[in-house]
Amino acid sequence: MQIVSGHHSEIWSIDIDPEERFLVSGSADVELRCYALRHDLVDGQYVSWINGDSSTQNKWEVLKLFGEIQRQSKDRVSTVKFNKSGNLLACQVAGKTVEIFSILDEVKAKRKAKRRLHRKKEKEAAKGAAEVMENGDTNHGTGEDGNIPLVTATDVFKLLHIVRASKKICSISFCPMTPKNFLATLALSLNNNILEFYSIDNSGATKSLSFELQGHRSDVRSVTLSSDNSLLMSTSHNAVKIWNPSTGSCLRTVDSGYGLCGLIIPQNKYALVGTKEGTLEIIDMGSGTCLEAVEAHGGSVRSIAALPNENGFVTGSADHDVKFWEYRIKQQSGQDTKHLTVSNVRTLKMNDDVLAVAVSPDAKYIAVALLDCTVKVFFVDSLKFFLSLYGHKLPVLCMDISSDGDLIVTGSADKNLKIWGLDFGDCHKSIFAHADSVMGVQFVHNTHYMFSVGKDRLVKYWDADKFELLLTLEGHHADVWCLAVSNRGDFIITGSHDRSIRRWDRTEEPFFIEEEKEKRLEEMFESDLDNAFGNRYATKEEVPEEGAVALAGKKTQETLTATDLIIDALDLAEVELKRIAEHEDERNRGKVTEFQPNVIMLGHSPSDYVLRALSNVHTNDLEQTLLALPFSDALKLISYLKDWTSNPDKVELICRVATVLLQTHHNQLVTTPAARPVLTVLKSILYARVKECKDTLGFNLAAMDHIKQLMASRSDAPFRDAKSKLLEIRAQHSKRLDARLETKEEKRKKKKQKK
Q: Where is the Small-subunit processome Utp12 domain (predicted)?
């Protein structure tokens, strides 16, 4: 019906007042634009509330610019919103402020416009504005009759108050119920999980209520329990939170860097956080402050593992280093207080990024997971190499060593858990554990039971001796990043991409492994049924008749190899064409050099070399080979088709290739400008070439029939129709079979008669 322009940048929010008088839009401009809405027909005319405006000229004009409202903030508009009664307008910016405008009724707006006009006339009279009057401009600011003042947006919208929040505002909302003694109640949602409520009246806005939701505003990247399970520490991209795991209450919140791993030091006085920036942050648990940030590594600190002797810890980083640290007590100069610090005592250099480290409970071995998909095991005392655990196809993201030091379990991005013996490094079992990357794994203390979490949102409970899945726990709504198991194994803590920390308690209710297996099988069966029901109306491929030759439905090694050969040929031909073009340029400039063709192309031109690679594909595999081609390579292949049509022997092959590629990449080809000229040329050439082939085949068939007739007219002609001969042989064979069956049936009858 109407397109309205006027803003100089993108419009972020619009709203209409409840009585449908105004539409207000906000952008990055310093003003809000206000439009008057046209109402329904009154006495055959479209009437607007503003200035009694009526119009019968343009029935499609719904919005009419009413004016602009100046904003105080220079930040862009995030939300504009009217309250339910329509007497207030809130403008939230992408910052910490909300501007509240009061909306005057018709009488007050006209009164304000009249006063504005009166003041303007007084100013003009004071300046001696007689010249302006002589020019005929005497009607500005008034209606057609010269007495009714024109109401503008500044007359209707009046800045009432500016609400300033403590943090950046995420969203706003007016309370639908109007409170007593106040105009409205406004709720603000801040980006630090705080909700603030403001009561608005004519004198201003006062904060009436504020409460905070304890939790992280981003991914929970690590969770760590203290040695006595009384405290829990979680890290995210800008904060470290200390929790009471029993009650779920947040005890401390500490601003920090992007924490990837953490460790609570025994006695629960201090904690360590390894950050993405490569620093180690020492946090005082009692005061909730960061005491020191030690520059520990040149890359992100991926893992922290405590040494069993409680005198130090080990860190692994993306800078290829594994560092051993000791605790020290440091006294600041001029102060009596002492606080903890750390110092590096040893460094183990690795050949690749370190993703995880784990120390055996007897402090004999240290296991280091590297980006090259292997796990290296060293002696802690001498740092000599002991074992290399290899078998994962993708990097190991997490690992843990059992309390008795017999087993080490590794979880990888290849979705598998591998259980190894730490004595010889042999793989006891490889388990396909999760539907996505395994992000955390940990043994239950003094047992061979273990928990694992992954990006498939699941928590799984395993028996590492029997290699069985015991339980699957569902609850998270996004990837599960981290895991912590209590000392007694009575509860576990998980942190997720959905920003939640969940506690899972062990119950006294017994469960049976066979029943859990049956439940999982039933769920799989039901999901298969749902998928089948969902695909009921999907297009189904035609099933060939029994004995008929059909296209292979799956990719095979032959089709993949053929696809790779075609892609290599296209790349080689493209390089050769560039070399030929460069040679032509040099020859045009006068530099006469002999062109040396590529030996790999076997003396063929680039076009013929690609055609040779395509012709070598088996006929039955051609369609699946072309389906595996990326669109960019398919586009290159189409560009060669017009050159190959001059070869009459390859017309059938070219038609098959063109048909498959057009059917497969139709939508992309239609929307790609570079493909249109090639398709236009092919359209004109292919039809002509196919007609020529058809005529040639028809001519040859007619000639063969003529030769057959000539040969048959001669009495001594050795020529015979192969098809008719085959039919004769089949008929004779069937007669013999019938005769044998008849003789057998007669013999049976005679035997019966004798009996």
A: 607-709
